[in-house]
């Protein structure tokens, strides 16, 4: 099918950000199609499956904007590619970042495929980020949005040039969330007052321990707390309940003052040590992706985040013979955690990133 550059499929969640983005696109003259992605089931107090409230909210927004509304059922794909990944990572003693994988495979993967199927050249979302085209390099570049305390470009570090070519971020120039809510009043006052969604979408209460126990009980097994010197300190409730750098909630009195410094999934052991043992000089990352260039020529200097809301760390990045990214900090950093996304920045530009596999002590 020939793609229409005036047609945009927007991920319409029924929230304030996507509502405002859809409104702005229509004001700019685009033919807008609202697409609500159905990713998982929701249940009432009796355990019966019900239609999520956000589907009705999105449909109401589309009606008020007088745009077409569609529901894209991705529940099976989401189960196999996001939920199963989440469970598997925790069972391996790692700390997953499902939002990063979801953005690559769902929001800018399956959703983009669907948009092209219905003839839309572009997709849009309510993310606070920006895509710009560099005439000198003939490449698309990914920038942070201008909004305070909003770094949603972080979860997009793995996007390809082909994906970036077809993305519009209407909220890229918004500097404060209050502006977004003010614009949303033009569509629906009730939506404009909605709270921001936070955390993991399929675990609304944020309790990943309970999620693991209910959905993968066979992977939540008791094991040993072991001190770094080899001494057994007690029993733990399952490696999925712990993460590198954790101090609180270990569940044994003898661990007072100790931190999680390692997790051995094969032996089902959680290794404890002192705070100084949580520090590392860098890490090795798999799946390195670079946006403004194919791969660096030699070492590059960058600011690095090792978790979404972490600090910007000065570091040197190089590519190993195996094609992995080796990142060395200027100063040791605490609690670098395998499974998390590491993202590389140059000022407000995301230049790439990868998935942390191991730390450099």
From TrEMBL:
Pfam families membership: tRNA_Me_trans, tRNA_Me_trans_C, tRNA_Me_trans_M
- Residues with site note (Interaction with tRNA): 127, 340
Sites where the protein binds ATP? 11-18, 37, 126
Entry annotated with the keyword RNA-binding? yes
Q: Which UniProt keywords apply?
A: ATP-binding, Cytoplasm, Disulfide bond, Nucleotide-binding, RNA-binding, Transferase, tRNA processing, tRNA-binding
Any GO MF annotation of the entry: ATP binding
The UniProt record lists the tRNA-specific 2-thiouridylase MnmA-like central domain at 211-274
Its cellular-component GO annotations read: cytoplasm
The region called Interaction with tRNA is annotated at: 150-152
Q: What's the Enzyme Commission number for this chain? A: 2.8.1.13
Matches recorded under InterPro entries: MnmA-like, MnmA-like_C, MnmA-like_central, MnmA-like_central_sf, Rossmann-like_a/b/a_fold
Catalytic reaction annotation:
S-sulfanyl-L-cysteinyl-[protein] + uridine(34) in tRNA + AH2 + ATP = 2-thiouridine(34) in tRNA + L-cysteinyl-[protein] + A + AMP + diphosphate + H(+)
Q: Where in the cell is it found?
A: Cytoplasm
The segment(s) forming the tRNA-specific 2-thiouridylase MnmA-like C-terminal domain are 281-356
UniProt keyword annotation of Lipid metabolism present:
no
Q: Which GO terms describe its biological process?
A: tRNA wobble position uridine thiolation
Q: Hey, which family's this protein in?
A: Belongs to the MnmA/TRMU family.
NCBIfam families the record matches = PRK00143.1 (NF001138), trmU (TIGR00420)
**Reported function:** Catalyzes the 2-thiolation of uridine at the wobble position (U34) of tRNA, leading to the formation of s(2)U34.
What name has this protein been given in UniProt?
tRNA-specific 2-thiouridylase MnmA
Q: From which source organism is this entry?
A: Peptoclostridium litorale DSM 5388
The coding gene here is: mnmA2
């Amino acid at each position: 099918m020939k793609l229409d550059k005036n047609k945009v499929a927007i991920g319409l969640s029924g929230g304030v950000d996507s509502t405002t983005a859809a409104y702005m696109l229509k004001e700019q003259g685009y033919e807008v199609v609202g697409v609500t992605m159905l990713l998982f089931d929701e249940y009432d107090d009796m355990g019966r499956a019900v239609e999520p409230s956000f589907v009705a909210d999105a449909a109401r927004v589309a009606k008020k904007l007088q745009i077409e509304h569609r529901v894209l059922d991705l529940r099976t794909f989401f189960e196999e590619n996001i939920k199963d990944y989440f469970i598997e990572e925790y069972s391996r003693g790692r700390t997953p970042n499902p939002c990063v994988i979801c953005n690559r495979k769902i929001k800018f993967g399956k959703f983009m495929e669907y948009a092209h199927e219905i003839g839309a050249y572009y997709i849009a979302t309510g993310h606070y980020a920006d895509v710009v085209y560099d005439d000198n390099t003939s490449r698309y570049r990914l920038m942070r949005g201008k909004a305070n305390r909003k770094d949603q470009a972080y979860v997009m570090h793995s996007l390809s040039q082909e994906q970036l070519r077809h993305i519009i971020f209407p909220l890229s120039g918004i500097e404060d969330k209050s502006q977004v809510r003010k614009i949303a009043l033009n569509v629906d006052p009730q939506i404009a007052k909605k709270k921001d969604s936070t955390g993991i979408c399929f675990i609304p209460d944020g309790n990943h321990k309970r999620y693991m126990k209910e959905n993968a009980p066979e992977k939540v097994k008791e094991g040993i707390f072991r001190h770094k010197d080899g001494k057994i300190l007690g029993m733990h409730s399952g490696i999925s309940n712990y993460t590198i750098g954790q101090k609180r909630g270990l569940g044994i009195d003898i661990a007072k003052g100790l931190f999680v410094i390692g997790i051995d999934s094969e032996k089902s052991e959680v290794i404890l040590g002192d705070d100084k043992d949580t520090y590392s000089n860098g890490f090795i990352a798999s799946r390195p992706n670079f946006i403004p260039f194919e791969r660096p020529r030699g070492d590059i200097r960058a600011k690095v985040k090792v978790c979404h809301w972490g600090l910007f760390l000065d570091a040197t990045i190089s590519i190993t013979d195996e094609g992995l990214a080796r990142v060395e900090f200027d100063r040791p950093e605490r609690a670098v955690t395998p499974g998390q996304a590491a993202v590389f920045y140059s000022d407000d530009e995301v230049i790439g990133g990868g998935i942390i596999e191991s730390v450099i002590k």
